[in-house]
Amino acid sequence: AQSVTQLDSHVSVSEGTPVLLRCNYSSSYSPSLFWYVQHPNKGLQLLLKYTSAATLVKGINGFEAEFKKSETSFHLTKPSAHMSDAAEYFCVVSDRNNNDMRFGAGTRLTVKP
Amino acid sequence: KAGVTQTPRYLIKTRGQQVTLSCSPISGHRSVSWYQQTPGQGLQFLFEYFSETQRNKGNFPGRFSGRQFSNSRSEMNVSTLELGDSALYLCASSSARDIYYEQYFGPGTRLTVT
């Protein structure tokens, strides 16, 4: 069975400062990993995905994530936060061998002016 | 290309009633998944359909059911509604047979059970 843990339920940063949202996963196989963002009253939007190619993945809106197998982590980062980044972020692990997709509990990002 | 659409966007029902939610995937997508999102339980997988067949099912009671039509549109039905069924129901479509590929989400249907 696989699982995903988002280590922080809430992260607060000031505009213009770096963002770090942490995600650890557990998977029996080589997983696919995703980060999704959900703005209030909206569906989820894919930010980026890792599918066993380059370990550093670049996504939309300046976000990127690094797959570290030794640490079973897939942390999401952005060099400089913008007010529009305030949202809920979900880390997702997918096992292509059994079509099992698991969502983390989510991290709410607050950006202060 | 139009995104995933869900109807209705908001719904209020009474305990004991049943409800049907609809999802139209992105054109060409054959996989449709349904999720329930609540503040307490987060995002939980309900089921997934591919080519009119249910391929995967989450851990929900039999009151939750779904189907997919030949045009890939999908419906989910909840019978004998309970207060705890109040949630945002999200539909997602994918172009590939397995959900290894990214899913595209609709805006959701917010169901309130009173």
Quick synopsis:
The complex is a heterodimer of chains A (113) and B (114). Chain A is mainly beta and 113 residues long.
What are the salient characteristics of this protein?
heterodimer; A: mainly beta; B: 114 residues; mainly beta; 7-stranded mixed β-sheet; 4-stranded antiparallel β-sheet; 11 strands; 0% helix
Task: Report what the structure shows.
The complex is a heterodimer of chains A (113) and B (114). Chain A contains no helices and twelve strands. By secondary structure, chain A is mainly β. In chain A, the strands form three sheets. In chain A, strands 2, 5, 6, 10, 11 and 12 form a six-stranded mixed sheet that branches. A four-stranded antiparallel sheet of chain A has the order 3-9-8-7, with no helix packed on it. A two-stranded antiparallel sheet of chain A has the order 1-4. Chain B has no helices and eleven strands. In chain B, the strands form two sheets. In chain B, strands 2, 4, 5, 6, 9, 10 and 11 form a seven-stranded mixed sheet that branches. Chains A and B meet through strand 5, strand 6 and strand 11 of A and strand 5 and strand 10 of B.
